[in-house]
Design a protein that fits this description.
The chain is mainly alpha-helical. It has one domain: Hydantoin permease (Orthogonal Bundle). The protein is built from 18 helices and no strands. It is globular and about 65 Å long. Bound molecules: phenylalanine and sodium ion.
């Protein structure tokens, strides 16, 4: 079977950017930054993006394009009869776990969009947005409907083939989301008490760095936001032909993804402080903060409609890249059709999401890890452990399994300063950091 291909270089860029930019930049970045003290976390996260994330992203693209397979198959093609492909299963596992809760959160966004269309959110609900949101997600049925709808949308795009719809959607809607976020940020900064929010985000409180869990959280956020370690970018890279040049695409994606997160932070934290919301509110943070901004700003209702529509589209271009990981694997492995595989795998993820959603309500007593509910547990295992593990395998494969010349050829890098810096980061720095952070946060290594 001839491997599917992107229609153009732009198509690949847009799809990969679409994968990167999503709920991770807005929803997850703000609440994780809020829980981990703000400024110091931001610096740590950005540091990890540049010394680990971007180098590993290039490595992941390179394995995919060179291996010409799904996340398991690429390794098998490049290193037959070696255990590297096992890393692919970690990626498939993280796709199930992450899309399981991602589509629930995207479902909340879809429901907000609907509430802005039908006018329910045009005025502040009597009990306030916080209680309204809390009641929404604790409900046994409504969130499942929206989660299901989002999953259906994801399945439809994946079963028609990732290329068609998404190139166009990302060309138009992503720039719109960027512009809207900038407008929100500018408005948010004018709120009373905005300075406190900016100080929280940009004035590091270094004392938080004595807490090992902050490093793991920043590492997980860097991986999650850049879509690395799962094999989504590997799979996308495998649809690329040899003519394209990877390094510039990689840097562009890394910078753009980080800018989205920072701008989202500037939009959200001033409002968090202006409205007296706790920055450590967890996953509900943006859902209780944003409507407050829209309620106060001119044309807020329309802005609310457009914002949540764009957020759903950005989530969709991420969720399809996640579903594509197991779909590409199962299609090849069992020789199933794309249609059947998408529906089959998507349905399993829907069921996982049902558990996540009930975990916000009737099953809130179910805490698989420590005191974390189902969503937080799945997120923790997938984002903070599986993705970095997948990234570790990618880094070790490119840095140690490949010869220097192979690594340069596969990544379009040259044996010059830049190339050697990249290879050094992939070969030594990324693995050492990941391992040390794992050891330190598991308590095996103390300082
Ligand atoms: N990067 C996406 C986001 O920020 C999420 C994602 C993670 C997508 C892993 C694919 C793989 O929303
Ligand atoms: Na992201």
């Amino acid at each position: 079977m001839v491997r599917e291909r992107w229609a153009s270089k732009l198509g690949f860029m847009l799809a990969a950017m679409g994968s990167a930019v999503g709920l991770g930049n807005i929803w997850r970045f703000s609440y994780v930054a809020g829980e981990n003290g703000g400024g110091a976390f931001l610096l740590l996260y950005l540091g990890f993006v540049f010394i680990i994330g971007i180098p590993v992203l290039l490595a992941e693209f390179s394995i995919g394009r060179q291996g010409q397979g799904d996340v398991v198959g690429s390794y098998q093609n490049l290193a037959p009869n070696k255990p590297w492909f096992l890393a692919g299963f970690v990626g498939v596992g993280s796709a199930f776990l992450i899309l399981g809760f991602y589509s629930v959160v995207a479902g909340w966004s879809l429901f907000y969009f609907w509430n802005y269309i039908n006018g329910t959110f045009w005025s502040i609900p009597e009990s306030g947005y916080e209680a309204t949101f809390g009641a929404l997600i604790a409900n046994n049925y409504t969130p499942l409907l929206w989660h299901g709808l989002f999953m259906v949308l994801t399945i439809i795009v994946v079963l028609t083939g990732v290329k068609k719809g998404i190139e166009l959607a990302n060309k138009i809607f992503m720039p719109m989301l960027a512009i809207l976020l900038i407008i929100l940020a500018v408005y948010s900064v004018t709120l009373d008490g905005a300075m406190e929010g900016l100080a929280f985000l940009f004035k590091p409180d270094w004392s938080i760095l004595t807490d090992p869990s902050v490093y793991l959280a920043a590492l997980g956020q860097a991986f999650f936001s850049l879509s690395i370690g799962m094999g989504a970018m590997m799979t996308y890279g495998s649809y690329l032909s040899k003519e394209e040049s990877l390094p510039s695409a990689t840097i562009g994606i890394g910078i753009m993804d980080s800018v989205f997160a920072i701008v989202a932070g500037i939009a959200i934290f001033p409002a968090v402080f202006a409205f007296g919301i706790s920055p450590s509110s967890g996953p509900s943070l943006v859902f209780i903060t944003l409507p407050g901004i829209f309620a106060e700003m001119p044309f807020g209702n329309i802005v609310g409609i457009i914002f949540f529509l764009l957020l759903v589209i950005a989530s969709l271009s991420s969720s399809i890249s996640m579903l594509e990981v197991p779909v590409a694997y199962f299609m090849r492995k069992f020789n199933w059709s794309r249609k059947f595989t998408s529906v089959f795998v998507g349905s399993i993820m829907f069921v996982l999401g049902v558990c996540v959603s009930l975990g916000m309500g009737v099953w809130s007593g179910v805490t698989p890890i420590g005191d974390k509910n189902i969503l937080d547990s799945m997120d923790f295992v997938a984002s903070n452990i599986f993705l970095p593990l997948g990234g570790l395998a990618i880094a070790l494969f490119v840095g140690w399994h490949w010869k220097k010349e192979e690594a340069f050829a596969a990544s379009d890098m040259k044996d010059n300063l830049l190339g050697n810096v990249w290879l050094g980061l992939v070969k030594y720095v990324a693995p050492i950091f990941i391992i040390v952070i794992f050891l330190q946060s598991s308590g095996l290594l103390e300082w």
